[in-house]
Amino acid sequence: MSKRIAAFFDIDGTLLAGPSLEWRFVSWLFANELVSSWHIGSWAATAVAGLLCGDLRAFNTNKSYLTGLPESLVQNWESSLSATALAGFPEAARRICWHAEEGHRVFLVSGTLAPLARVFAGRMGGEVGVCATRLEVVDGLYSGSIEGNHMSGPEKARFVRKIAQRLDLSLADSFAYGNHADDLAMLDSVGHPVAINPNARLKRLAARRRWNVEEWSDKRKTESVPQSAQPRLEAR
């Protein structure tokens, strides 16, 4: 039965404390003079304009700061990172380890850029599936647009249902972890939703639906961890 159970994790704010993966990458690009302040300012202005007009899709799909940059830059960014640069919450590592030991399939489902999500997954070790926002590439260069839909909101739930059908997973027995109301559809797709460090709206909704709520800290402790990472399971 364990092979029919999956655990779906959001990344930013759920497994990894801020700043976000994408912002870390943008900061590296800027620090290495691979993008100018004008490019970042133009990108930010366009994104904010989209938000002010209520066009969330324009905000999510605007990756103009990457226009003309080679996709190989992600490998350069990864090479520049220290061994602990992308260390997530200690509790996150323990929880993923518990799922792996139980024989559950583990997936990262994130709105961040797919190549960055794959870097993060690679540092986790083990077999981890990745579903994130894909970037359009033309002749090895980023076009500044995304390919397909932004992996957020209902798109996360669609992926969960699609992969469950493909792999014959039992969603009623599966887990999902998220920190934002944007993760609501994904959390609502499984039998064991867990709100991690939830924002105000998700915290209210989780309380109303009697979902598990957990606070994970990024503080590194030197002492050994005495407790199992097994989650508390409550009936929905």
Strand arrangement in the largest pleated sheet = 4-3-2-1-5-6-7
Annotation field: number of helices: 9
Instruction: Give the overall form.
Output: globular
The span between the termini is 20 Å
On the 0 to 100 scale, the average pLDDT is: 88
CATH architectural grouping = 3-Layer(aba) Sandwich
CATH H-tier superfamily: HAD superfamily/HAD-like
Question: What layout of secondary structure does this protein have?
Answer:
Blueprint: E1 6-9, H1 21-31, H2 37-52, H3 56-61, H4 73-80, H5 90-101, E2 105-113, H6 114-124, E3 128-138, E4 141-147, H7 154-167, E5 175-178, H8 184-187, E6 192-196, H9 200-209, E7 212-214
Parallel strand pairs: 1-2, 1-5, 2-3, 5-6, 6-7
Antiparallel strand pairs: 3-4
Structure characterization notes:
- This protein is of the alpha/beta class.
- It has one domain: Rossmann fold, CATH 3.40.50.
- The chain has helices at 21-31, 37-52, 56-61, 73-80, 90-101, 114-124, 154-167, 184-187, 200-209; strands at 6-9, 105-113, 128-138, 141-147, 175-178, 192-196, 212-214.
- A 7-stranded mixed β-sheet has the order 4-3-2-1-5-6-7.
- The protein is globular and about 50 Å long.
Summarize this entry quickly.
By secondary structure, the protein is of the alpha/beta class. 39% of the residues lie in helices and 18% in strands.
